[in-house]
Amino acid sequence: MGASDFLAPSVRWTELEHVIVGELAPLVQAIDREGLYPAEAMRSLGKAGAYRAHLQTQNTFAQADIAGAVQAMSKIGQTCGSTAFMVWCQDACAWYIEKGHSPALKQTLLPKVANGEILAGTGMSNPMKYFARIETLKLQGKKVAGGYVVNGQLPWVSNLAPDNILGTAFEVEGRPGGDAGRGQEVMAIFHCDWPGVALKPVPSFLGMEGTGTYALHFENVFVPQDYILADPIGPWLAGIRCGFVLLQVGMGLGIVQSCIDHIDRSNHTLGHVNHFLEDSAEQLRVELHDIIERVHAQSDQVLNSSDANFAEVLTTRLMTSELTLRATQSAMLHNGAAGYALASPVQRKLREGYFVAIVTPAIKHLRKELHRIRSSAQQ
Ligand SMILES: Cc1cc2nc3c(=O)[nH]c(=O)nc-3n(C[C@H](O)[C@H](O)[C@H](O)COP(=O)(O)OP(=O)(O)OC[C@H]3O[C@@H](n4cnc5c(N)ncnc54)[C@H](O)[C@@H]3O)c2cc1C
């Protein structure tokens, strides 16, 4: 049995399928077209175990099964790419808490994030781009008695609502030693309902409208010491970055699989003309299988913080973005006008696929990081 057919035992597939078909599928049009944030479906997915396979302390196997988490996300992404992205947000925030240095949060918050009782976002695009020398850190903190006070703005953070939480990083004013020659960086968890945190609406996007995405403003927000996950962030981030990136692959794989299904279906009636197109279902299946094999191989290495290992994971993520773009375009070309109809899932896949390619790490960011790692390996 190949990795593509294998069902990870760390996921309760029957319960998960039940929620996907019974609760999520009927909401997909409203999520995509009306911007409905599916909070209850997200909680049900959590109860069905969608967010715990990668959490060593929260699943019954006492092992981190990243491949299982990717497979669960992919299954959800076959039905709704927006929800698969929010599953990644939830998974990533739980990953930060489990790997973080706050025993209090591991005890109180982590089980609730792992079972979907608390929904969680990740404001790490800006820090990841900061460490890749793409932009400066947008949040600044000041050490005060019992914690930090944080100010600044993040332009987009998803899977948010007033009672949700998120993980993000800030730069400490007046404490040298940071990565960019400025203040040292600190990682923390925030509650969206803390005084000074404001969720501001963002302009409409062409997709991902139901992902609970807001601009997040911080004005003199006090973060208690118990909510600090890593201070300084540097070595800790190196330890969690492979998991952060590898988990994301699940969103792309789900979209690719559903595009293959749409191509197969269209070939029943249009095969005589469709076979003149590139990126056939057979070709996409082969490449999807290769990526799944890579995820399985890299899942066991996810805590290896070396640059060489990170480059392998970045390559898998890049292959996923590139395959998602080709698969979504191919599904549209195979389906023709039927796929171009507003009610068709095929045109939605196209818009979801672009998101896989532009969300951090975007294709350009991935290529920049791979260039940096390969160049420094040659020196
Ligand atoms: C629907 C959606 C959901 C997202 N969810 C999250 C999330 O949950 N967590 C997270 O950390 N990030 C999130 N992001 C941000 C995303 O991961 C990328 O960082 C973002 O799309 C910018 O990447 P880029 O490669 O285009 O940036 P670059 O091209 O490198 O630079 C663009 C930079 O210019 C600025 N900029 C450009 N246009 C605008 C604008 N219209 N408004 C404000 N600033 C602008 C921003 O600083 C941005 O980072 C989300 C983005 C979108 C579109």
Order of helices and strands: HHHHHHHEHEEEEEEEHHHHHH
The set of bound ligands, ions and cofactors reads: flavin-adenine dinucleotide
The CATH class of the largest domain: Mainly Alpha
Total number of distinct structural domains = 3
Write the layout of secondary structure elements.
Blueprint: H1 13-24, H2 28-34, H3 39-47, H4 66-79, H5 81-99, H6 103-108, H7 110-114, E1 120-123, H8 125-131, E2 139-144, E3 147-157, E4 165-176, E5 183-191, E6 197-200, E7 214-224, E8 228-230, H9 234-274, H10 281-299, H11 307-335, H12 337-340, H13 345-358, H14 363-378
Parallel strand pairs: 1-4, 2-4
Antiparallel strand pairs: 2-3, 3-7, 4-5, 5-8, 6-7
Helix pairs in contact: 1-4, 4-5, 4-9, 5-9, 9-10, 9-11, 9-13, 10-11, 11-13, 11-14
Bound molecules: flavin-adenine dinucleotide.
Overall description:
Helix content is 53%, strand content 16%. The protein folds into 3 domains: 102 residues, Butyryl-Coa Dehydrogenase, subunit A, domain 1; 113 residues, Butyryl-CoA Dehydrogenase, subunit A, domain 2 (Beta Barrel), CATH 2.40.110; 144 residues, Butyryl-CoA Dehydrogenase, subunit A, domain 3 (Up-down Bundle). Strand 2 and strand 3 form a beta hairpin. It is of the alpha+beta class and 379 residues long. The chain starts with 12 loop residues before the first helix and ends with a helix. Strands 1, 2, 3, 4, 5, 6, 7 and 8 form an 8-stranded mixed β-sheet that branches.
